[in-house]
Amino acid sequence: MKRFWGETLAVARRISIELLRRRRSLIFWGIFPLILLLLNGSILAERRQIELAEALGLSAPVTLVGAALFFSCLGGSVAIVVAEREQQTLKRLFVSPLSGTAYFCGIFSAHFAIGLGQTLLVATFAVLLGATLTGSLVWSLLTLVLSILSYVGVGFILGTQLARRTEDVNALVATFGVPLLVLGGTFVPAFLFPEHLLAIAQFNPVYHMNEAILAATDATPDWPDFAPHLWVLVLFAAASVLLGWLSYRRMLVQERSL
Amino acid sequence: MMLHLDRVSKAFGDRQVLDALSFHVHPGEIYGLLGPNGAGKTTTINLICHLLNTDSGSITLNERPISHHTKALVGLAPQDNLLYRSLTCAENLDFFARIYCLSRQRRRQQIAYCLAAVNLSDRANSVVSTLSGGMQRRLNIALALIHNPQLVILDEPTTGLDIEARHDIWQLIRKLKQQNIAVLLTTHMLEEAERLCHRIGILKAGAIAAEGSLDELKELVSAREIVTISTDEPERAISRARDLGWSHRFYGDDLALLLPEPLELRTLLDCLADISLDSVVRQPVQLEHIYWEVAQSTESPVAIC
């Protein structure tokens, strides 16, 4: 167990140092949700005829989970796997005793730290502009963890199976990501969706992430509102991790023989 | 015996890459594995590193069959520099030291030792992408040593390096030997193998075609001196060589005459007096000649000395 945690922390630490050294990704992952929060808040304030501060409070959770974490955790984990492939450092990892599980957990831990950083940034920004954050901290954290786990799992699947080069990352995230985000209610609130789109959105994990975080941060959080989305999220996170692991095993077989 | 391969075979589809390959490396021994591209060197390394499984035969490290648990016994410096380019030299070493679960104190000691061993102590905090190709190559080797392995595999460690950097790496390899570490060296630079290796195995068609110390391998060439000539009349030169009881070989485009005993230059030129010669090069038997001998031989294996 000590070895497992040692390996996990080593991977997380390495990814963090690489991101801190390059800075660019971290800066963009910081700027992006703030701009989006302002836009979403302004649109919501105008459409619902409410104060900007209140609109920011309502927009912040969805902006964070639906958009910010999507690009940092999913896009980030795809980029990490692709970079390992391009630098061929995967071979050195395969030769070492590093376990695949510790490698996954290391990537998850690094992205969880980034996700927490984004959460603090978005929350602080919203509060500074007068928003009041409400709801259940535990449910919110649970939603964050499950969302990040899902994103990293899907990132593993895309990174190991579909993205061969760095150029593929943007195309993949755009192709899979943007429609899911729109249909998840990240940019346009789901309550404005027509019925048929709402029916389709039920099959979109991002929709459940957004609805779960909205329920968790409601002024009076209600378990029946939260629970259905939570269970979908639990199932999706488990499936993503399992498929991510299987994809990793498949990549191992392919890359080892090179 | 540190490393022992016993009748190891491996095929990829219909292509038999290794065919009953056997050799061993002792602690403190530098074993050179030579062979043309596609002879199976990389596959052999991948099998020893447990990246691939054998179809048949066995590989043991320190008498233990290779498995996930023997990975810590092996340090691999691959052909390409596999480094995290945005980390510093020390951070690269620290990452792998953590993967091998070294304690904080051991990590510090090993990082300092490895950087010193490859003459990179003064570049410990330099980001890899700012290092020259030679420095990256040296760091690539340092990473193979970070966990103090008992077997170090160096896959063409000096390819693309200048002479000075090459000598530094040769010195490092000799130091490993002094520390009783077994070294498996693959190289296309025959001079490198001659200088460093205690024993050399020449891989051909997935098996060892010839093996032994350099002196033992020299016995495979029935000559004491090789005379390489450049001439417009190769047929006449070959005919003259036959008359004198010398063998001949073509090493690429070069015609080489195999002399059973070294001759004075004057005597040699007298022997070839009426043949038009552009150049004459005399050499003692070297690994290059042995390599050609093995490569051109139709017998398999040629000799295990």
Can you describe this structure in just a few lines?
The complex is a heterodimer of chains A (258) and B (305). Chain A has helices at residues 2-22, 24-48, 52-87, 89-95, 100-128, 137-162, 166-183, 195-201, 205-216, 223-256. Chain A is mostly helical and 258 residues long.
Radius of gyration of chain B, rounded?
Answer: 22 Å
Number of strands of chain A: 0
What is the helix tally of chain B? 10
* Residue windows where pLDDT falls under 50 for at least 5 positions of chain A: none
Terminal Cα span of chain B: 18 Å
Mean pLDDT of chain B: 89
The strand order across the widest sheet of chain B is 6-7-8-3-9-10-15
Q: Roughly what fraction of the amino acids of chain B lie in strands?
A: 25-35%
Say how many strands of chain B there are.
Answer: 15
Strand content of chain A: under 5%
The end-to-end span of chain A amounts to: 31 Å
Which radius of gyration of chain A do the C-alpha atoms yield?
Answer: 19 Å
Structural class of chain B: alpha/beta
Helix content of chain A: over 70%
**Largest sheet properties of chain B:** 7 strands, mixed
Secondary-structure element series of chain B: EEEHEEEHHHEHEHEEHEHEEHEHE
Question: Sheet with the most strands of chain A?
Answer: none
Helix-strand sequence of chain A = HHHHHHHHHH
Helical segment tally of chain A?
Answer: 10
Shape of chain A: globular
Structural class of chain A: mainly alpha
